[in-house]
Amino acid sequence: MEQQPARKTSRASERLKLLINHLDRSQATIRASRTSALTSTYSSSSQPQRLRYTLQNDLLTPEQQLFYEENGFILIKNLVSEEDINKFRKEFERICRKEVKIPGLVVMRDVAISKSEFVPDQKAVNKIQDFQESPELFRYCALPQILKYVQCFTGPNVMAMHTMLINKPPDAGKKTSRHPMHQDLHYFPFRPVDRIVCAWTAMERVDRQNGCLVVLPGSHTGTLQEHDYPEWEGGVNKVYHGVRDYDPQHPRVHLEMEKGDTVFFHPLLIHGSGMNKTQGFRKAISCHYASSDCYYIDVKGTTQENIEKEVLEIAARKYTLDSISFADTWALRGRLVQGERISL
Predict the structure, then answer these.
(1) What is the C-alpha to C-alpha distance for residues 206 and 204, in angstroms, rounded to an integer?
(2) Whole-prediction pTM value?
(3) Which residue segments constitute the domains of the chain, with CATH numbers given?
(4) 167-179, pLDDT tens digit by residue?
(5) Helices (DSSP H) in the chain: which residue ranges?
């Protein structure tokens, strides 16, 4: 990677040192000697400094580590090739035309569009998820350039836990193309939270017009909040839960991205997306990863009970089973990408 200017790196190093001295729990360490640009500030014999959200690595610069620690996300430009993205797009279109059947795949339709009398092929689909059995789409999850960043958050044993290709449709006038502000951890019955990360790649330019991601920087440092369906006049898509109460004055960032740009973000980061005000479909592909050292938890008696109930009802119909646990639904979808499958 291109080395940062020494003066700029020195300032970032000092800020990083100050920040990590305030973090109270971590499984990670960083040594100044691991990044040559830091040696002007710290000697190679310096004691390890603690990080909470990233693991020791040779990839992230001090500026990038600091940014993720403070904000809960990091955007990497031009990470996935146009060739790969075009292949993912073609496979998605084949799935929509029912030319290929993928075991376990879930096809979702926008609540407004699904009521139309007839909508052909991909125009009827706003999302597919659980494509772990699709050789072509799952290739995204194993791209070396994606995994090298993922390991900075999960460590070397990497599980792909949740896969999606989002096809945000032009809004039908009901504002249903929005995605409510939420935390991804609401859906996950596994921990520890800091060893989970999402990779989200734009398959074309995304901006405020077609409904780019909106994030609340720093919200990942909080706790998991209560979620439920928002009371939207035009209706809400299935399983699109939103945070019940968050500070509307919290600064927000609209992540405008070019084709191939990828954002990595923490599962407690509050985020969502706006309406697609264009006539085209806004596509993105994503995967939630977790360390295979993570473990399942019982969410009964917690704010996650409502999503557990809804997921189990869907799973019972999908798998025609009399009894299935919330953890089972994730174990069925989880797939090892790299290293050893230990717990998940």
Answers:
(1) 6
(2) 0.82
(3) 6-71 (no CATH), 74-338 (2.60.120.620)
(4) 988 877 766 667 7
(5) 6-20, 62-71, 82-96, 135-138, 144-154, 305-319, 326-333
